[in-house]
Amino acid sequence: MVGPNIAFWIIALVMAYAGVRLVTTRNVVHAALYLMIVLAGTAAIFLLLGAEFLGWTQVLVYIGAIVVLFLFGVMLTRATYGESKGLDNDQRVLAATVAVIVFLVFAGAMWKAFGASTEIVLEKSTTVSELGRDLMTNWVLPFEAVSLVLLASLIGAITLARRDDPEHVRDRGVER
Amino acid sequence: MDWFDSWALSLAVFIPVVGALVILAIPKAREYQIKVVGLVASIAALIVGIGILSRWNWDDGGYQFEVNKGWLSAIRSNYHIALDGISLPLFILTLVIVVLCIIYSWNHWPEPRSPKMLLFLILLLETGMLGTFVSLDLILFFVFFEVTLLPMYFIIGIWGGEQRIYASIKFFLFTLFGSAFMLVGFLALFFLSEPHTFDIVELSANGGAAAAVISSTAGLWIFAGLFLGFAIKVPMFPLHTWLPDAHTQAPTVGSVILAAILLKLGTYGFVRIALPILPQAAHSWAPWIGLLAVIGIIYGSLCCLAQTDLKRLIAFSSVGHMGFVMLGIATLTPVGINAAIFGMIAHGVVTGMLFFVAGSIHERYHTRDMSRLGGMLSSIPRMGGVFVLVAFASLGLPALAGFPGEFTSMLASFEPAGGLSQSLFRGFMIAAAVGTVLTAGYMLYMLQRVAQGEVPGEYAGHHLHDIEAPEYVSWTPLIVLTVALGIFPSLVFNVTNSSVVPMFEQIFHHAIGG
Amino acid sequence: MKLNLFLTLSAFLFCLGVYGMLARRNAVMILMSIELMLNAININLVAFGALHGNLTGQIFAFFVIAVAAAEVGIGLAIVLLIYRNRASVNVDDVDLMKG
Amino acid sequence: MQILELFWLLPVVNIIACLLAFFFGKTVSRGKAQVWTLPAIAFSWVMSILGAVAVIGDSHLAHEGITKTYKWFEFGPDMFFQMGIHIDGFAVVMCLVVTTISMMVQIYSIGYMRGEPRYVEFYAVLAVFTAGMLILVTADNLFLGIFGWEIMGLTSYLLIGHYYEKRENSNAAIKAFITTKTGDVGLIIGAVVVYWATETFNFGAVNAKALEGEFHAPLLLVACIALFIGVIGKSAQFPLHTWLPDAMAGPTPVSALIHAATMVVAGVYLVARMWPTFVTAMNVHIANVNLIALIGAITAIIAALLALVQFDLKKVLAYSTVSQLGYMIFALGIGAWGAGVFHLFTHAFFKALLFLGAGSVIHSVHSNDMRDMGGLRRIMPRTYWTWIVGTLALCGVFPMAGFFSKDEILASAYHNGYKWVWAIGLAVAFLTAFYMFRATHLTFHKNYRGHGHPHESEGLITGPLIFLAIPSAIIGFIGAPGSFNLFEKWATPAAVEETIAKYPVLHPHPVDTTTFVLAGISVALALLGVLVATVVFYWEKTPGDIVERVAPIRYLHRFLANKYFLDHLYGGIVYGIRKPIADACYWFNQNVIDQVLNLTAAGTLELGKGTYLFDQNVLDGFYNGSAVGTDRIGGFFRKIQTGNIQQYAAVFFAAMALLALALVFAVR
Questions:
Q1: Do D188 and B238 count as a contact with CB atoms less than 8 A apart?
Q2: Which residues from chain D sit within 8 angstroms of residue C30, using beta carbons?
């Protein structure tokens, strides 16, 4: 049983390092890349826990789509490529203390709740058919709801970010 | 005609609102129609009032024209309205005063001239006042009590003097602060009384038995809440500072209604709600109410001596006069309550007239500062004559409205209800008697400044027109009433006596015990 | 594998996300921190799913991913608009709601 | 019988006359308001005479009188005020006095007030005043009495302040009203105490209860003291007398009517009407000093002294009135009801005569000051002779009315054991003669000192003078002492007779040598006063050589020489007391009593300002302060809304963490 533990630790350390670098780096693009590493780590953990389909979806959606979206975002807002000076605002210390408090509370709660011994025994990894059957039977309503959410966000994003052509300008009168 | 018996009160109360809504519908430009509709609405209400008077059964002290329909059954509060000897005089006074106010301001409306808005507010105010006097349900009473607040706030706020905003907000917050505690009191009464009810009649039946269940300390606290709500409205000594500001800044019509009727909501509240429902608490509170009342008399008169502004002086005089009314109530005897109700009506008529005249003086001299006024008796003799007559009525001269109320309340204060310390109340009586001298002092001081003396230089040239038609029409009934109340006080006393005596018999038998 | 290993990892990532959200001045970086926090949540979900052996955890993870995607879409659109109006995505400048 | 029942018409007719005069004075009667008021007062006068005739005819009517009352208004469980009239001999006498004087004044004013501003209002208020007095006099209960009492207060305010253009006139009016109102506080408290002690306001019932002793003792004393305070205020007795001289600011007919004959007498009337109550309260029959006698005596002596140093003719008469009122009050105080009321009756006539005479003099000389009068004897003969009749009556010289009433009082004082009151009475008699003849010499004798040319007043003015002179001269005989005292026979109400019967001390004293001796002494003193005044003012002799040169004085002196006491009196007291004491007294009066009154007025004004400042700053300050406080607290919390999302997020997460902490660890 030592194989998965070693794998877990490797992934965990990589993710931890990437996470820390993500929130401390001065370069926005580096931050995006570190995010990609963390997401990849998460996918690996999913695989470790037997949720292959979820793992690969994670890779596909998160890394494939969202990180790319971030890069687009960075490019569109013309952030300065290299070092941009103070990315952090002046309340870093406050943020750090809050983060530490939250970590201690969560970790403390979990250690108290589950003790150090609970063991995850993984008899088999879940197959896509089981996942599909469950999704389509118990969770069909949330599934439809999520599709609506995605559609709404799609339209929303378009209307918000669209750069209008001149003849609409009169009535909206917003364009600078 | 029995439909009239059941519908009369609701008609009288809600005709003004209907009138107000009709006024809203008429465009702002057509002022004449607006004025006519306003007048017709208020006169219609008055006619219904007269109908009530004509069908009134004079020797039955109980509730008449009673209507008790379901309203908010969820909280067991129903639309229970009726009139009895205590509320009838005030009800009729309200109807009369509002009609006179509308006639008075027929062709000169206060600054930012807008008859539509002002008439709408006045009629809304009238409904609020009438409703408060007829309602026999705590929640209904509270609703109408608050309805009167809003229009008054706007009347002072829009058409007031220089610091009208300060005055109107102060008036609003003071009364709201009071009524918040009053509401707490009502709710406490609802929850702690035996049959959970908001109905005043049930609560005050046989000496407040329903509320007798409440422990005496709780009773004291509930009474404290009610006291605060009503005392601010009266106004009683420490809580009175909103009155002078409200009166100095209010337009004439606003001042008249505020002085003639709104002040009576507080004292009426005491007589209708606080005393009958919590007689025990009232009994232990009575010396304090008496003390505050007497302080009010002396304090009000002293402040008047220091005034230079005419309306502010009359406002402080109201504090003094209401002190007499509250002294009557504090004695917890039928004599005292009769004196209090008569005092309310007399004060309403007399101070209403005083404010009308003060308003006309302001309209002619364009100032209220007494040092610049003067020589009214020589420049505008008729107005001066009316002013002297009303000043003497307010002074408490026999044969005029002020005297019977004050004398009877002093008479009552000599023998308070059983258990109250006689020497204390006799001390109050003597203080009140000294108060009459102070009242005489500042009234004559005012008369000397305003009515007598030479016409001041700056007005020597002007042609100051004497009383005009609308003023004649609106003032004659009040003057006739002032003299009539002085010579035939039985007009009010007979009506109130027939219902105050049985009410206090109940209280005596059940609560205070002789 | 111990359960609380996973839980500790996700707590650590979550707190990094919190720090990132509070400390970063650039709006896009804040969005990234939010993504980080969401991922931490997913790890927890899947870990508990595995512990109890049923699929609910994973299905929830799916929904979280979907919503996260929608959220990033809208987030970036708003950031774009802010940028277009303010020529900067610095969160400190956007304090119109100052009391 | 039926005439007396119509007596309620008297006040009502006058009030109607007032309203008619007020509304139609200028228009219908073209400014001659007396067209309305005179018939009314004439009607009341005739009614009073008919009433007097009816009363003389039937003694039961004189004592018991008739009472007609009906319920006015109910103010409590079977407690109600009554409105009614009680007419007996006493009331008829009072009506007679009031109506006669009022009629004379109204006729007199036609001439006197012609051309004055607000002529119509003057008559209207005059009519209301008479109505007020008649209400008090005919009322059967104290509550209605207070009505009349205060209406007179109002009218006296309006009449004194008739020329209100000048500020000091309206000040005098206010001073009068406030002082009487202060007295009225006592009246009202007394009425309240009387009501609760005897369950009624009715005079008869209260007197009866007091006599039978049902009137609870301490309350009786409190009630009487309180009522007496009201009397002090209204009848200008010792502490509250300072308003009467200032009230001379009003037109002279007003002073004649109000401040000589009627209003100021209201207090005396009240004491007389409730005499049994006062007697039992002050136990006049036992002690030889009581509040009423004391106050009356002090007032009499002080006012007489003050009158000595006045140069304003009307002020002299005003102080003389105060002094005579003191006389009446202490007459009632020593138990001589008949004498006191008779003095009231006679005093009304001759004092009104004197005032109207003074008015006629002032009207022609156009100034009140005696220093620029003099020598008017030949110029104004009719005024002079009527003035002389009035003065002699006032001084109590034999044939005149004053002699009988004043002498009766002094005799009763001596007889009822109030020796000190008798002594003061004699002194006052002397002083009265002195200052009256001082005034007479200064105004009528010697040569005319003023500039301008006075002339005899017109018929309308001198007519009333002559008309009043007749009763001043002959009316005294109806009250002559001894058996044929008609006045007391008609005018004493039953209750008073009962009191006199009950207490032996108050029995009427027999007419014997002592009465004549006492009468002799009082007349002698009066003549002495006249003599001294003439010496000092007519012959203007310095005291030094007076005795030798002037023959009559020499004989008198030799005659008096053997009575050392008199000589001492002549030499020492005349000058000893005249200048210093009178001046001191006047100084005391002006600087102490008057000042006390003015200071209290100013003090209350300052107190008023102080309370108002307290009200605005402390009380209002508290409320405004609380408003400002809430505003500042609001300002503090506003800073938290920084608009920076991250700060909100930080606070949010911190709170969440703490909450989680509490939840996890606290919840077991």
A1: no
A2: 646
| B306 touches D: beta carbon within 8 Å | yes
**Residue D418 neighbours by CB distance under 10 Å:** 26
Res. C91: pLDDT tops 80: no
Does position A89 have pLDDT exceeding 80, yes or no?
A: no
Estimate the share of chain B in helix, then strand, then coil, as percent rounded to the nearest 5: 75, 5, 20
Q: In this predicted model, what pLDDT tens digit does every residue of D375-413 receive, in sequence order?
A: 788 888 888 888 888 888 888 887 777 788 888 888 888
pTM of the prediction? 0.80
User: B79: which strand partners?
Assistant: B69
Owning domain of residue A148? 126-176
Q: Does C83 touch chain A (CB under 8 A)?
A: yes
Chains C/B: 3 or more C-beta pairs closer than 8 A?
Answer: no
CB contact under 8 A, A112 and D646: no
Separation between Cα atoms, residue A140 and residue B444, nearest integer Å: 90
Is A77 within a domain? yes
**CB-CB neighbours of A92 under 10 Å:** 15
Instruction: Flag whether residue A2 sits within 8 Å of chain C, measured between CB atoms.
Output: no
pLDDT value at residue D562: 46
Dihedral, CA of residue D314, residue D316, residue D319 and residue D321, to nearest 10: -70
CA distance to D159, D270, D289, D445, per residue, from D552 (Å): 48, 48, 42, 20
For domain C3-87, the CATH architecture is: Orthogonal Bundle (1.10)
Looking up tokens 């009715």, which residue turns up? D202
Give chain A positions within 8 Å (CB) of C6: 8, 45, 49, 120
| Positions of chain B with pLDDT lower than 70, given as ranges | 1, 207, 508-514
Residue A117 touches chain D, beta carbons under 8 Å: no
> Domain-by-domain residue ranges, chain C?
3-87
What's the N-to-C CA distance of chain B in angstroms? 42
Q: Is residue D72 classed as helix, strand or coil in its secondary structure?
A: strand
Classify B151 as helix, strand or coil: helix
Contact C58 A58 (CB under 8 A): no
Residue in chain C lying closest to A160 (CA):
C77
| Nearest residue in chain C measured CA to CA from A114 | C4
Cβ separation C14–A49 shorter than 8 A: no
**Cβ-contact D126, D109 below 8 angstroms:** yes
Highest mean pLDDT range out of D34-38, D81-85, D170-174, D223-227?
D223-227
User: Which residue, of A23, A57, A87, is where some domain finishes?
Assistant: A87
Residue of B nearest to D601 (CA): B441
Query: Does A95 contact chain D (CB < 8 Å)?
Result: yes
| pLDDT above 60 for D610 | yes
The count of CB pairs under 8 A between chains C and D is 30
Answer whether residue A95 is part of any domain.
Answer: no
DSSP codes, B187-220: HHHHHHSSS---BHHHHHHHHHHHHHTS-HHHHH
**Mean predicted confidence (pLDDT) in A115-124:** 72
Q: Give the mean pLDDT of D75-92.
A: 83
Nearest to C57 by CA among A126, D286, B500: A126
What confidence score (pLDDT) does residue D571 get? 52
Instruction: Determine the residue of chain B that is closest to D157 in CA distance.
Output: B444
Which sequence spans correspond to the domains of chain B?
A: 284-514
Mark whether A69 and A130 lie in a shared domain: no
Please tell me which chains touch B, using 3 or more CB pairs under 8 Å as the contact test: D
> At which of A38, A72, A87 does a domain end?
A87
B-chain CB neighbours of D192 within 8 Å are 410-411, 414, 429
Helix axes B87-104, B115-134, angle to 10 degrees: 170
ipTM of the complex: 0.72
What pLDDT is attached to residue B512? 56
For residue D605, the chain B residues in CB contact (below 8 A) are 305-306
Q: Which of B338, B411, B452 sits opposite D192 (nearest CB)?
A: B411
